[in-house]
Amino acid sequence: MSKEIGDDDIVEASNPPLKKWTSYIVDSLVVRDIKELGSGLLALIVALLVMAVMISAAKINPLEAYLALVKGSLGSLNGISETLVRATPLIFIGLGIAIAFRGGMWNIGGDGQLYLGALGATIVGVYLPPMPPVIHITIELLSGFIFGALWAAIPAYLKMRRGTNEIVVTIMLNYIAEFLISYLVAGPMKDNTRLIPVPESRQIAASAVLPIFIPHTQIHAGFLIAIAAAFVVWLIIERTVLGYEIKAGGENAEAARYGGINVLRMGFVAMVISGGLAGIAGMSEVAGVHYYLMDGITPGYGFLAIAVALFAGLNPLGVVLSALFFGALMVGAESMQSAVGVPVATIYLLEGLVIIFVLARRVLSRHRRSG
Amino acid sequence: MPFEKILTVAFISGMLGAGMRLAMPILYGALGEIFTERSGILNIGVEGMMLVGAFFGFLGSYISHSQWVGLLFAVIAAGLLSLLHAYLSISLGADQVISGIAINLLALGLVTFLNRAIFGLLLLPPNAAAFQPITIPVLGNIPILGAFLFSQHALVYIGLILVPLLYIILFKTTFGLRVSSVGEDPRGAEAVGINVGRLRYICVLIGGMFAGIGGVTLSLANLNFFKETIVSGRGYIAVAVVMFGRWNPVSVLGAALVFGIVDAFQLYIQSLGFEAIPSQLLLSLPYIATILFLTLRVGGSSPSALSVPYSKES
């Protein structure tokens, strides 16, 4: 990016504009996001239409399929519960992706960082002596964050020191993480006390379990932590110098450097925070959903979360809504599969289409404004 | 470790022969990506385009009982998908990384849907005509070298012939020099009368079509079946190989061969059944190697205008 650097850029880079915090909420939620949300919804409608054509081509009634999708995700307490459970990891990883992308770092490694976070949480949950739940869960959370952050530190460090492309490295680390976990749960961490040992770790201690906070559902405290995380990330991005520097480096590295910001270091920091958040997603899956570590603990949450973050216009608060929506889509897709036989993976198609139409609309509206 | 099992002519020639075959999908993906990136467009959608190529190639061969028709299907399907990337990144000036990610998601969804819709109902695994090994007389009997170079399927020979051919096209023809000029300095290229947009479209299309051949190499030559995880990262490795091979077909062949042989090595070691080495470690070797090679890469800089959207007006 070699934009011309004007005086305005330099002034702005050295003096972070201080506005009332309420105006940030107004800016981020109302003015910007109605436009973003509008383009997102339109994109979704077009994507649903395209998919309907494909579904009809396979001789399945698309209305019936979509009805099953809505009913399955929102039509029952069970469906809503499942939607919130699926949304939880998507929120964590989506937040991380929002930070990384805003800092100009392409973190495509959400799945690998989730795996590592799950590992960090399992180690704390299984091998630490009994202790009060509050302490145990706190350590577990930190451990998940640190493991995910360290996994992300590999591409972040290589990028900072050697300029190595982080896209390829994060993707490679996804595969490596998957094999690592597969090895651990089949070998050193395998639960051999069971009658028929399967490749799974031992269960975490009761004090390390995230409690279910709405009775008769599966909705666990991880969801609340995710909401809290969204506010924290929003605060970091919009209200702190760190967030300002991360954004400045991502938006216009040249100008940021002029303003005295260490762009390379900010990229590193953004990536590490991003990995830590994905690590918490892994912790939340272990401590709130499965209670042990296993193969395939992420059905591609990392990639889905990219769609989540982009759909939200990389806005942390928008990520929550967007994750709920995509969570519903995942759950609904499963009902759609059992009701009319449209495979679950078809939602990848929908997500790909949504990203493409969001991209296209955003770019087109930018052209219209400037032209 | 029983080294005597490894240091045999049969083991080494088998492994090198397999290494050559395993290098080919990556080589094809990377050869196309050289054109795409040299023209200034980053395409990480190679992964998805290879997947589409693998599926449509298999489908084409299944319908027509000819692997060559399958190849044609793959090239057309992956080429069409690449035009979507071209439209988003060239005509709309959208972010190329995001467009690539979208294409990969789209390809995975599309292929899964079609695979289940078309092949999901069959009771027996579908059969498709595949590329068979062709042993070149005399040369094929040379120990080790014969298995490596002269006893392979047609797509290996074609790939090897393409490398010098593409080298000449890129560095010795007007077309190749124009591609580079568009990737280095689009404004300057425009000023001397090159249609930047059109040339980039052509290069992205070339990249997509090559990725399609890479996919077919997986589903109709190295293997003879299709599954949704058949590419599993080879498209991304191809992107890495292009960086590592510094946008030069000859070095890219070398890099692809290294990956092919690493992959073959881990498969062969697994087949010997060493208990001491976890299979998961062996399986992750190609991915670890990718990171190491990218890190150790020295010198060579990417095309200056790579992944920067270009518009005449601004």
Kindly describe this structure.
The complex is a heterodimer of chains A (371) and B (314). With 371 residues, chain A is mainly alpha-helical. Chain A is 75% helix and 0% strand. The model of chain A is unreliable at 1-33 (pLDDT under 50). Chain B contains 13 helices and 2 strands; from the N terminus they run αααααβαβααααααα. Chain B has a single domain (3-129, 141-296), classed as ABC transporter involved in vitamin B12 uptake, BtuC (Orthogonal Bundle), CATH 1.10.3470. Chain B has a two-stranded antiparallel sheet with strand order 1-2. The mean pLDDT of chain B is 91. Chain B is an all-alpha fold and 314 residues long. The longest helix of chain B is centred in the first third of the chain and has 30 residues, at 9-38. The N and C termini of chain B lie far apart (63 Å). At the A-B interface, helix 6, helix 7, helix 12 and helix 14 of A face helix 5, helix 11 and helix 13 of B.
Please state the CA-atom Rg of chain A, rounded to the nearest Å: 21 Å
The percentage helix of chain B is: over 70%
Main sheet overview of chain B = 2 strands, antiparallel
What's the architecture of chain A, going by CATH? Orthogonal Bundle
Quantity of strands of chain B, as a count: 2
Task: Look at the helices and sheets of chain B and give the structural class.
Answer: mainly alpha
How many strands in all of chain A?
0
CATH topology descriptor of chain B = ABC transporter involved in vitamin B12 uptake, BtuC
Which features characterize this protein?
heterodimer; A: 371 residues; mainly alpha; ABC transporter involved in vitamin B12 uptake, BtuC; disordered N terminus; B: 314 residues; 71% helix; globular
In short:
Chain A is mainly α. Helix content of chain A is 75%, strand content 0%.
Q: What does the secondary structure layout of this molecule look like, with pairings?
A:
The complex is a heterodimer of chains A (371) and B (314).
Chain A: H1 7-14, H2 21-57, H3 62-74, H4 77-102, H5 110-127, H6 133-162, H7 166-186, H8 221-239, H9 241-251, H10 253-258, H11 263-290, H12 301-311, H13 316-340, H14 346-370
Helix pairs in contact in A: 2-14, 3-4, 3-13, 4-8, 4-11, 4-12, 4-13, 5-6, 5-7, 5-11, 5-12, 6-7, 6-11, 8-9, 8-13, 9-11, 12-13, 12-14
Chain B: H1 3-6, H2 9-38, H3 46-64, H4 67-91, H5 96-119, E1 133-135, H6 145-149, E2 151-153, H7 154-172, H8 174-184, H9 186-191, H10 196-222, H11 234-244, H12 249-272, H13 279-296
Antiparallel strand pairs in B: 1-2
